C-alpha cells in the first residue's frame, strides 16, 4: 500500500510541477531532466505493482511486511529521492526560475529563433504563385468591411513566405496606405506586439513620437495603435499566431472603418484560422513534384538554372523524397549546393541518406516542427508520438489507430462526460489534423477521415522525441546493439532474429512489422498490444494475459489454449483478433476470448479439405465487428457461423454458392446490425427477393461489390433506416428498386462502374425525390467506362 501511495503522490507532484511551469520557466534541460526522472520512477513503481499483482493472480501467496518484498526497496528509495527533488524546487525556486510577465505564454519565439534564418525563408518561394493570386484577390477585394484573411498549414510549408510575398507585392503596395507586420509566435507578449506595430507605423507616419513609448502602459499603447490605423486603409500581417485567446486579445486593436482595410493572419492551427474568420480560410498544400524539383534546382544552381542533364532524374527522386515540404527541400538543396563535385554518384548518395541529412540539421528542420509538438496539450502528445510506431509512408486506418490509442491508455474521459472512449479519441485525431501534425490520407464521401498518416519529417521528430523521453524505442536496423530496459513500447521495423530475448518483462506494447524473433516469452507478462504479420502463433501466446489487440497478416494459425489437457484461462482482455484462420477458430478459442469486439477470420484455399463444422460465436456478447475473407473455394460459408446478436458490422469477401434469401434470413436476425458489406460474393441465384417480413431494422450502410445480382426486388420497408447504399461493379444489375426513394433516412446512393441502366435508375430516384421537395438524397456516380 505504501508503494501505491507513493505512486499517487508522485503523480500529484508531477501535476503540481507542471502547473508551476505555466507561471515560470526553468532551463529546458532541467525541465526535461526532472520530468524524465519523475516519469521513470512512476513507471518503475507501476511495473513493480503490476508484476506483484500478476504473481498474485497466478496463485502466489501475498505476505505482509517489507522483508518478503525486498525487490521493492530500490524503487521506494528512488521515489523518496525524486520526491525530495521536486519539493525542493517547488519551495526554493527563486534563484532557479525565470519569471515571465503576466501577459505571456510559455514558448520559444520563432521571431528570434535561429532555427529558420531569413535567407532560408527567402529561398522558399517556388510554387506559391497560385497561392499569392488567391491572397491578392482577398486583400484587394471589393468588400469594404475589415476582412480577416487567414493562411494555415504545417510548419515549414511557407506560410510566412507567402505572407511576405503578399506584403511586398507591388499591386498590394499601391492598394493600401499603411503596412504593419507583427510576429506573435508561441511566446506572446501583448506589450511587445503593440510596440512592434508602433515601430512599423512610426516609419510611415511622421506624427508618431517613439520616445514616449516606455512611459505608456499597455492601454495607452493600444489606443495609440488604434488612433493611427483609424484613418488610412491599412494592411496588418499577424504572423505565426498559435491560439484563439491570443487572437481575442489583439483583435480589438484593429479598427473597422469600412474602408477596405485587411488583416492577414498566418497560423499552424487550422481551428485558429477558422475562429478568426469562419467564412473561409486558405490552407497551404505541399508542393507537387514539378515545383519541388524547381525549388531544389533553383536553390542548388542559383540564377543560371543550368544543370547537368544526368542529374535531373536523380534530382527529381530527391525532390520526391522531400514529400513537398519546402523547408526540407531548401535544407537538402543547401546540402547539395555544397557537395563537390556535383556528380551522379554524389547525388545518389544524398538520396539514400536523406533522413540522416535531415537529422544532422536539427535546428533548421526538426526544431521548427518541434514547436508544434511542444505547443500541444499533454493529452495529445502521446497520441502524436505513437505515429512513430509505423514505418515510413504507412497509412493506418482511423478505426485501428483509435483502438490502439484506447488500448494504450492514451484516451482519458473527463469527469461528467457522456462521450465514449471512441468519440473522445476521434476528437483527439481531429485536433491533431487541425494542428497539421497528422495528415488525412483517405476520406469517405461525407468527409470523415478513413486513413491517416504523417509526413516523414514529423515522423523523424517523433522517433527522436520518443527515444529521448523514453516513450518508445524503435528498431530501425537489423542488428541493434541492445534494447533499452526502461522502455515500455517497442516498434520493430526491421527483422531481428530472437529479438524477444532482448525485451524487458515490463514491455507493454510491441508493433512488429517483420515475422522474425516474435516475443512469445511468458516473462513478458504485461504486453497488451501486438500487431504482427504472416506467421504461425505458438501456444505460449495464451500466457500473455494483458493482450488487448492482435493483428496478424493473412490466415494465421492460432493453436488451441489447451496445454496437457488443461485449459488455459485465456486472454480475457483481448478486444481485437485480426487475421486468424478458420481452422484455428475452435469453440475453445472462442470461449477463451470472451471480450472480443472485432474478429476477422480468413478461409484459406485449403478449406475444402476441412470437414464442415459449425462455429458458434453466440457467447461473444461484446462482438461488434465480424469479417470473413474467403481465399479459396467453399460452398456457402455463411452457414458455418452462428452470429452473436451484438454484431453491428458484418463484411463478407469472396463468398460463393449461397442464395440471396440466406442473406435476408441470416442478417435480419441481428437487431443491432448497422453495416453489411458483401464484396466479390457470387450467389447461386441471380435474384434477391425480399418479402414484407424481411426487415433490416437498424441497417444504415449496405455495400454490394462485384455481385452477380441481376434483379433486386425490395421496398423501402425492407430498409427503414438505411443512410448509404454503395454499389460497385454491379455489371449485371438492371436497376435499383424505385421504392428506395421513399426511405426517409437515405442520404446517398453511390455507384462505381455500374451499368448505365442502373445509373439511370439512380438518377430517376434522385430527380423524383427533388420534385417532391426531398433535397437530402444525393446520387454519386463514378464511371471509368460505358456500356
From TrEMBL:
The protein's UniProt keywords, in alphabetical order, are:
ATP-binding, Coiled coil, Cytoplasm, Hypersensitive response, Leucine-rich repeat, Membrane, Nucleotide-binding, Plant defense, Repeat
InterPro entries, per database record: Apaf_helical, Disease_R_plants, LRR_dom_sf, NB-ARC, P-loop_NTPase, WH-like_DNA-bd_sf, WHD_DRP
SUPFAM superfamilies associated with the record: L domain-like, P-loop containing nucleoside triphosphate hydrolases
Q: What would be one Gene Ontology cellular-component term for the protein?
A: cytoplasm
Q: Which GO terms describe its biological process?
A: defense response to virus; plant-type hypersensitive response
Domain named Disease resistance protein winged helix is located at: 390-461
Regarding the membrane, this protein is recorded as: Peripheral membrane protein
* Major place of residence: cytoplasm
- NB-ARC domain spans which residues? 137-303
Q: Where in the cell is it found?
A: Cytoplasm; Membrane
The yes or no answer to whether the keyword Lipid biosynthesis is present is no
Instruction: Specify the domain of life of the species encoding this protein.
Output: Eukaryota
According to the record, the segments passing through the membrane are none
GO molecular-function annotation terms?
Answer: ADP binding; ATP binding
A Pfam family per the record: WHD_DRP
What is the role of the protein in this entry?
Answer: Confers resistance to late blight (Phytophthora infestans) races carrying the avirulence gene Avr1. Resistance proteins guard the plant against pathogens that contain an appropriate avirulence protein via an indirect interaction with this avirulence protein. That triggers a defense system including the hypersensitive response, which restricts the pathogen growth.
Entry-linked PANTHER family? AAA+ ATPASE DOMAIN-CONTAINING PROTEIN (PTHR23155:SF1152), DISEASE RESISTANCE PROTEIN RP (PTHR23155)
> According to its UniProt record, which protein family does this protein belong to?
Belongs to the disease resistance NB-LRR family.
Question: Mind telling me what this protein is named?
Answer: NB-ARC domain-containing protein
This protein's species is Solanum verrucosum
